[in-house]
UniProtKB/TrEMBL annotation:
PROSITE patterns attached to this UniProt entry: GLYCOSYL_HYDROL_F3
Protein name, entry field: Glycoside hydrolase family 3 C-terminal domain-containing protein
Source organism, top-level taxon: Bacteria
Family in the record: Belongs to the glycosyl hydrolase 3 family.
Pfam family, any one: Glyco_hydro_3
Molecular-function GO terms, alphabetical: hydrolase activity, hydrolyzing O-glycosyl compounds
Annotated Fibronectin type III-like domain residues: 322-398
Swiss-Prot/TrEMBL keywords: Carbohydrate metabolism, Glycosidase, Hydrolase
Species per Swiss-Prot/TrEMBL record: Anthropogastromicrobium aceti
Gene Ontology biological process terms, A to Z: carbohydrate metabolic process
């Protein structure tokens, strides 16, 4: 039996290192950073105490035992923090508590800042050498950013803070605790000495950032996005936040692909940019000998490679890390190309002054190709290398990269012949370059090709006829005793209809508080030895809504800015062991949608505007989790680029942009990261909701890329059968036909059958289609720890150095109660001393409003106060203020909405002295199906 060790100290150290390496230093006049030991600092901005560890929504819901905010980390550091300013903030915060809004998607993007008097700031400037000014922002699921004050722009309060502090201090450091890039025009207005993006760094985030501020860790983060002067400079902004249709008019010209090609002057900080505390000499070359002999004549295949070499030396006085970035400039040809595209990068280890590192990297020719979605090159629906000169560039950001070699092709080569997939069905105008007489490129708008009535072939193989029970269990397939076909032949059509749906949230069949159970969820499926698999959010750590604590990781943007693949892999190996410890097979992350527009609320979960960086970082994280025998679910496949109306909006994207930008990261994660679990989106791409899209989930994903894992929907996603068909949450047949294997989620898979039976009866859906999904699910589970748990072969997980209150392991024994009609559960005998919690699970009959009443007594006199707080899935349902009742029974009631079917209820006793007797759940208005809810 294998053994895994989760060493908290190592985990925390890796997360802290990542939080530090992801910090991007954009300004550093007079080497203001790093601050010297003992340097006196006044810290401004409330976010120093209220650090945003992540954004909001499912990607941020991690319960933690601690968060090391900036105040904590600064206090622990070698700096001397001004007490007067700190005390002023602490006093002010007492009357200005953090505004959480009304929960999910309602949290304000920012908090009100404390007004600063000249007296306070000038006093601080007379005592301190340096001012640190912290700006905080959040956004997230169902809550995009907006080009408004408090989101993309600073608030008046923040402007006032910067103005007064920069006026009084000569050394100023602006620290941006944000999930996403923000407007940077304040740099011109207030000219701060240093500007550091620290992003949202998880529970160790404050410590990581302060390590960079003090120089304990050198600044080495690089921007994963371009920062332009204005939000309107991004060509996507004008087509963002649309209600029904988003037209991706900028086409492949996303981020630096647009700016470097057409509008260099609009860039404030280029992609890949970031300052260091030292200097480096970076030498790189294209190894001409590595080029295939017949290359010029077009004798080259997609797997042939060229080699680039690099040699980096630390020429400064302190240790540091540098990232070398390789770009290609392709001939404009017929297709038109961005003037630079990232093809590879490498980050050094920590180099001491004078120390160097060199390396050789192989780059395949597929990475240099472009997709022809119109046939203009003579090779329709092919990845091609158009004739002309290919220049390879190297540098430390996209702007300073210079030529290191080139080669020319005398004819155009079709590297991979594919077929038209996911093309727009509606007219789309898209950007393309036109070359001026002086050689400069200007964007012009042209019509993109539309869909050519291409219907997917039904490639689903026949399956074995139903045999009924032959006594085979899933483990027999694993042990080679029986084939998967023979095994699945035992499952009835009904069993197959059950296996293609998961259950959640917080299903009692798997780890408490997690997002979904899937696989062996019915007695029949369990009988055949199919385990129940478990998955949960998300990119920044394990979300367990019942309150189990987990490790909260830095967000995706920060992790991409590290440009450090091995660090990502090592960190996610820890995450993998933590998953294993909590019986979770698949994390619902990494999130890898493209940062198409800086206003997308979920950008904090995603990596970058660049697909290569996204794919490579995701692959590293998958590799890490893979070392622990678990995996991640890469999401959202594909085109989830705004939160507003995400269930209903149709993204109209050219096939070329889909393939080169929006699918590319996923392709890399499948081909190089061996992804085995994918989540489709809520929305539609070119008329078809992704969950029912055969071209996406079968033709491209499995046919072209060779994916053999599972595909799941996003939670309660809509599906449609064909363009113009109205999507619904019950069109499961289209989902199965498309080979999106799992519907996430139902309350009970046996009760939510949607159109499956009717589709089977009509012959539109056949047993073979269901069997194909069942095979994907069973293969996934067979190779996961879920089967090892079922067969008693699970590895031993050892937890070491875990802080006392970390509670890193789920309570797998939570008792569940069915709530049918008015249901009273006894509470006699539970411990109800001050600070005690009592937890249990409930399964309700549907969605709706409940009255929850608690009956209790107390021997105390009527003036005694004994509050009991009821939390449902960790959200406060209400606090019941009991008074002493001199022994009499008292019932207090509250009403509220309860979402979903499975919940955790936790009673928290704020004071001792109360004797709880019972809790009653009374449904007020309950609906039992999704369609009722709509
Ligand atoms: C989100 C997913 C998430 C799922 C489960 C959805 O609302 O879009 O990213 O994994 O919920 O929480």
């Amino acid at each position: 039996m294998s053994k895994f060790t989760l060493d908290w100290k190592q985990y925390a150290a890796l997360a802290r290192q990542a939080a530090a390496e992801g910090c991007v230093l954009l300004e550093n006049k007079n080497n203001t950073l790093p601050l010297a030991d003992g340097e006196t600092c006044a810290v401004f901005g409330r976010t120093q105490f209220e650090y945003y560890k992540s954004g909001t929504g499912s990607g941020g819901l991690v319960n933690t035992s601690y968060v090391h905010d900036l105040d904590y980390a600064l206090t622990e550091s070698s700096l001397t923090i001004d007490v007067e300013v700190k005390t002023a903030y602490k006093n002010w915060l007492k009357d200005h508590p953090f505004d959480l809004g009304n929960g999910w998607a309602q949290e304000p993007w920012c908090q009100v800042e404390m007004p600063l008097s000249d007296e306070l700031v000038s006093g601080a400037a007379s005592r301190c050498q340096t001012a640190l000014i912290v700006i905080g922002r959040t956004a997230g699921e169902d809550r995009d950013n907006a080009a408004e004050k408090g989101s993309w722009y600073l608030t008046d309060g923040e402007e006032a803070m910067l103005e007064i502090v920069c006026r009084h201090f000569s050394r100023t450091v602006v620290i941006l605790n944000v999930g996403n890039i923000i407007d940077m025009s304040f740099v011109d207005r207030y000219e701060p000495s240093s500007v550091l993006y620290i992003w949202q760094g998880g529970m160790e985030g404050g410590s990581g950032a302060v390590d960079v501020i003090t120089g304990k860790v050198p600044a080495s983060g690089r921007l994963s996005d371009t920062i332009a002067y204005h939000i309107d400079d991004y060509p996507s902004t004008r087509n963002f936040g649309c209600e029904d249709t988003i037209r991706y008019e900028e086409d492949i010209y996303v981020g630096y692909r647009y700016f470097e090609t057409f509008a260099k002057e609009k860039v404030r900080y280029p992609f890949g940019y970031g300052l260091s505390y030292t200097t480096f000499d970076v030498q790189a070359a294209l190894d001409m000998c590595s080029l295939p002999a017949g290359l010029a004549k077009g004798e080259v295949s997609k797997t042939d490679t060229l080699h680039v070499t690099y040699d980096i030396t630390n020429t400064g006085d302190v240790a540091g890390k540098e990232t070398v970035q390789f770009y290609v400039q392709k001939p404009q040809g017929f297709l038109g190309k961005p003037s630079r595209e990232l093809i590879r990068f490498a980050k050094t280890e920590l180099l001491e002054p004078g120390e160097g590192e060199s390396g050789i990297l192989a780059i395949d020719f597929y990475s240099l190709s472009s997709y022809d979605d119109s046939g203009i090159t003579g090779h329709a629906f092919c990845y091609v290398l158009e004739e002309g000169t290919y220049t390879i560039l190297a540098g430390t950001n996209v702007r300073n990269a210079t030529e290191i070699g080139s080669f020319a092709l005398t004819e155009t080569v079709a590297l991979e012949e594919l077929s038209q997939q996911l093309a727009p069905r509606r007219h789309l105008e898209r950007m393309t370059p036109k070359t001026n007489e002086d050689g400069t490129l200007v964007p012009i708008i042209q019509a993109a090709p539309v869909y050519l009535q291409h219907y997917s072939e039904d490639t689903c193989p026949q399956c074995a006829d139903y045999t009924g029970d032959k006594g085979y269990k899933l483990d027999d397939v694993k042990r080679g005793i029986v084939s998967m076909d023979e095994f699945l032949a035992q499952l009835s059509d009904l069993d197959l209809c059950h296996i293609v749906k998961g259950e959640g949230m917080s299903s009692p069949k798997v780890t408490p508080g997690t997002a979904a159970a899937f696989g062996g969820l019915t007695p029949n499926l369990t009988y055949f030895g199919i385990p129940a698999g478990c998955c949960t959010d998300g990119p920044s750590g394990l979300r367990m809504d019942c309150g189990t604590n987990a490790f909260s990781l830095p967000g995706g943007t920060l992790l991409a800015c590290t440009f450090n693949t091995s660090l990502n892999a090592d960190l996610f190996e820890m995450e993998g062991i933590e998953m294993r410890n909590n019986h979770i097979e698949s994390l619902l992350g990494p999130g890898m949608n493209i940062h198409r527009c800086p206003l997308n609320g979920r950008n904090f979960e995603y990596f970058s505007e660049d697909p290569l960086l996204s794919g490579v970082i995701a692959s590293a994280q998958l590799e890490g989790m893979g070392r622990a025998g678990v995996t991640g679910t890469i999401k959202h496949f594909c085109g989830n680029n705004q939160e507003y109306h995400r269930r209903f909006v149709d993204s109209v994207i050219s096939e070329r942009a889909v393939r080169e930008i929006y699918l590319k990261g996923f392709e890399i994660a499948v081909k190089s990261g061996y992804a085995s679990s994918i989540m489709t989106t809520y929305g539609s791409v070119n008329g078809l909701w992704t969950a029912g899209n055969h071209q996406l989930n079968t033709d491209i994903l499995r046919g072209e890329w060779g994916f053999e894992g599972i595909v799941m929907t996003d939670w309660w996603a809509e599906i449609n059968n064909a363009p113009k068909d109205k999507p619904s949450r019950e069109k499961f047949a289209a989902m199965v036909l498309a080979q999106n294997d799992l519907y996430m989620v139902t309350s009970d898979t046996t009760q939510v059958m949607g159109d499956l039976e009717a589709a089977l009866a009509s012959g539109r859906l056949e047993r073979r289609h269901l069997t194909r999904c069942a095979e994907n699910i069973c293969r996934f589970l067979m190779n996961s720890p879920a089967l090892l748990r079922l067969t008693g072969k699970e590895a031993e997980i050892e937890l070491v150095n875990v802080p006392e209150n970390a509670q890193l392991t789920s309570d797998f024994d939570i008792v569940y109660h069915d709530i049918k009609g008015v249901t009273t559960l006894p509470l006699n005998g539970i411990s109800s001393e001050k600070g005690d919690s009592h937890m249990f699970g409930i399964t309700t009959e549907g969605f709706g409003t409940f009255r929850i009443s608690i009956t209790a007594s107390s021997e105390s006199t009527p003036l005694a106060q004994m509050p009991v707080s009821v939390f449902v899935d960790n959200q406060l349902f209400g606090t019941y203020s009991f008074n002493g009742s001199e022994g009499k029974e008292v019932t207090l009631s509250r009403e509220g909405g309860v979402f979903g079917f499975h919940h955790y209820v936790r009673l928290y006793f704020g004071q001792g002295g109360l004797t709880p007797i019972s809790i009653t759940f009374e449904p007020i208005d309950i609906v039992t199906s999704f369609s009722d809810k709509d």
